[in-house]
Write a structure and sequence with these properties.
The chain is α+β, with helices and mostly antiparallel strands. The protein contains 4 helices and 3 strands, in the order E-H-H-E-E-H-H. It has 2 domains: about 5-45, YefM-like fold, CATH 3.40.1620; about 50-85. A 3-stranded mixed sheet has the order 1-2-3.
Length: about 100
């Protein structure tokens, strides 16, 4: 749970009245976040565009990292099948040697 200092909380009514001041705190004064209260309940958070974009990129990276094992698992059976198959009796060294001779590498 995120902890807010008293100075980081503002009522929705005061936010409407002091919006420019809050924007200045966030964009120029280095305040990380301002929690917006409605009926003494935290309803929203004001953050800078830079912080929002940083959080969205973290979310995207996390989503990607969560999907990687799932994405790779579909290939595991194909890899095992390929490893077990007798596609060629030649070793990879023999194949590379033939290619080097053929293409003059």
């Amino acid at each position: 749970m995120v902890v807010y200092q008293k100075s980081e909380l503002i009522s929705a009514t005061n936010l409407a009245k002091k919006f420019g001041q809050v924007m200045k705190q966030i964009t120029q004064e280095g305040v990380e976040k301002i929690g917006v209260l409605k009926n003494n309940k935290l309803e929203a958070v004001v953050i800078s565009t830079q912080e929002y974009e940083r959080l969205k990129s973290i979310e995207a990276m996390h989503r990607l990292s969560v999907n990687i094992p799932e994405d790779l698992s579909q290939y595991s059976a194909l890899i095992e099948e390929g490893m077990a198959s007798k596609v060629s009796e030649k070793s990879h060294e023999d194949i590379f040697e033939e290619l080097a001779k053929r293409y003059g590498a």
